[in-house]
Amino acid sequence: MRTDTLKAVANPRASRRVFFGVAALVFVASAALTVIGCMSMSSMSELPMPGGWSLSMTWAPMCGQKWPRVAATFVGMWIVMMVAMMLPSLAPVLWRYHEAIGRTGVMRARWMTALAGVGYFFVWAVLGVIVFALGVALMTLALRVPSLARAVPVAAGCVVLLAGFAQFSGWKSRYLACNRTLTAMRSPTEAWKQGMRLGVHCILCCAGLTSVLLVNGMMDLRAMAFVTLAITAERLAPFPDRTARAIGVVIVIRGLWMLLQAS
């Protein structure tokens, strides 16, 4: 009886160690690849634009590159970056899901949890495709319309300012509450749908912070670190609404500073 009890206690602990060990390895690998990608992009020259800003070559093909390859490179970098940024706050949610379906068997629970995680990041990959298309469209317009290019710094400051104000909204609180759980569905299809549903809620919840990242430079490691810490803090903190509002204060100050520089 005592041996069975010890095994029952040890197995969940061992499973927890394996789960978070794998999550840590995935995070380290994705973070390292993100840093390498950012460093390679920062070594490339940028195109000076009217209004005092520079256009990153992230949105333009290099010599001899075709647009499909540029898009695939961008989306690949986007997915790796999102894994590094979102995994610290996603891992506890996936672990609770793993625990909830653990009675169906260890291997099945791992498979279902992995499927939910893949569904989650699939949604972020789709967003990456949309971001790339919008970025290329904005780049094309800015190159063709100088007056629009001159307005970009002011528009960027307004976007950051609005993102800061969004941190105080009830909309933010509602979606922040939705990002802490996954329903323990036991079929592969439902696990995939649950992961996608969580991904959609997460994208809506992080819309402001994602905008801050894009406006300040997707390949800027400082902006990336700030957004990662902000997302993780507001998801895992005991008082998520207070944390989100504190982050909002920082973003509002940043937006005001950007508008001041633009003027």
Automatic annotation (TrEMBL):
The keyword Cell membrane does not apply. It holds the Pfam family PpoB2. The chain crosses the membrane at residues 20-42, 75-97, 118-142, 148-166, 198-219. Keywords: Membrane, Transmembrane, Transmembrane helix. InterPro entries: PpoB2-like. It comes from the Bacteria. Signal peptide: none annotated. This is Metal-binding protein.
